[in-house]
UniProtKB/TrEMBL annotation:
Residues 150-194 are annotated as: Disordered. Coiled coil: none annotated. This is SNX10 protein. One of its GO terms (molecular function) is phosphatidylinositol phosphate binding. Its main location: cytoplasm. Residues 168-182 have a biased composition (Low complexity). Keywords: Cytoplasm, Endosome, Lipid-binding, Membrane, Protein transport, Transport. Belongs to the sorting nexin family. The gene is Snx10. It is found in: Cytoplasm; Endomembrane system; Endosome. The keyword Phosphoprotein does not apply. Residues 150-163 have a biased composition (Basic and acidic residues). It comes from Catharus fuscescens (Veery).
Amino acid sequence: QEFVTVLVRDPRIQKEDSWHSYIDYEIFIHTNSICFTRKTSCVRRRYREFLWLRQRLQSNAVLIQLPELPSRTPFFNMNNPNHVDHRRQGLQEFLEKILQDALLLSDSRLHLFLQTQLSPEDMEACVSGQTKYSVADAIHSFASLNRRFPIEDEERKKGKNDADSDSESSSSGLGPSDDSISCGCKASPASEES
């Protein structure tokens, strides 16, 4: 049975400049679906990028009624935990519904959104063939950039890794290492539902 688990969590205030701030959210994906290049990943996205994704998905799947995003309200206060959590829940529900639709799952923009940190402009360029890298290359590159904890690298340098323990994954860059842990995401997807 195929599954896709998506969590939107860990909202953080980011400073754009001295006058502007925004909140971004961690998107954690864990799946066994053949639709996904990586089975586990996490990225950070802001509300504006969700708006872009919805608009692009809708333009490519005209006959499908996409779920709504939480509304953009002029009274949204990023220092109000209730406002932030309400938006987080709405973003998670949006992604959960989208990931149940086979047609939407075939859109490369969705996969780049969920499994890379490319900007919307770079995602568009990649999907339209204007980059030297493919969608799969972009996803693999992002995963390999975020592959290991720094402490694992230290242990490798010191030669503490057992020859039997993980030799194939440390030599080839493939294997059982968990991509979600490597980019700072929490390992247990069910742990955070506040």
